[in-house]
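Chain A, query sequence.
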Amino acid sequence: MYPARHVQYHSVSGYVQIVSDGHYLPAFWAHPEIGGPFPGLVLLHDYWGLTAFVRSQVRHLAEIGYYVIAPDLFNRQSADTLEQAQTLMKQLGMTALSHVVAALNALKTHNRCNGKMGVVGWGMGGRYGLQTAVVRDDLRALVVFYGLPPELMAAELRMMECPVLGLFAEKDTETTLEQVEQVRQTLEALNRGDEIVVYPDVERGFIDDTRDTFHPVAATDAWNRMQVFLEAQLEVSPPPKPDLFNPGRIY
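Chain A, predicted structure.
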């Protein structure tokens, strides 16, 4: 998962609380223990909740040089069935977007975050990421895994300031290929570096190694594409060249 060209930072992680709508909202975050400042990433979970998979993604991205936070949009609840997930989404309602904003602000104001911000979302989280990017002009990157708003308009996509990497599944029963193609056509016309990828013969959830739909080949390709995209858009500092390493220093 970690190409040799990347520094793998020692990171620290754990649960924190952020203020959203006048209340405390739990979130999971991770960041390199030393160095910085680093770009910031907000990770938005799917309708299953803030699962072990999402927490592992928070840690992995911190280890390659990001300050990362994943707000618990369901406030310590999770779903095991689609029926439970639908109930939690109804309870969440439109407060989701204010939670996303709270997470972005928590990172952006941190003294070890350099203000270069991106959002990564899966399913429901990808949908909220798109809706957030429409109304904010301070995002530099958006990665969407198999999730689109049900009525996403071309005019809204054209309003976004940041480029998008969309990673979709051919056999997704919730996001249709027609929807994905409409998004592709709109983004291609903007000519700003957006990229849409559809993985053949895979299902929604292909990157989640805790689910039956996990597809290791598609997951590896998607992870690598995400790394390259985020590095380019957030201008991640390259690792020091071998001849510049100082003996005894930890990188």
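The beta strands are 11-20, 23-32, 38-44, 67-71, 113-122, 139-145, 164-169, 195-199. The chain has a mean pLDDT of 90.
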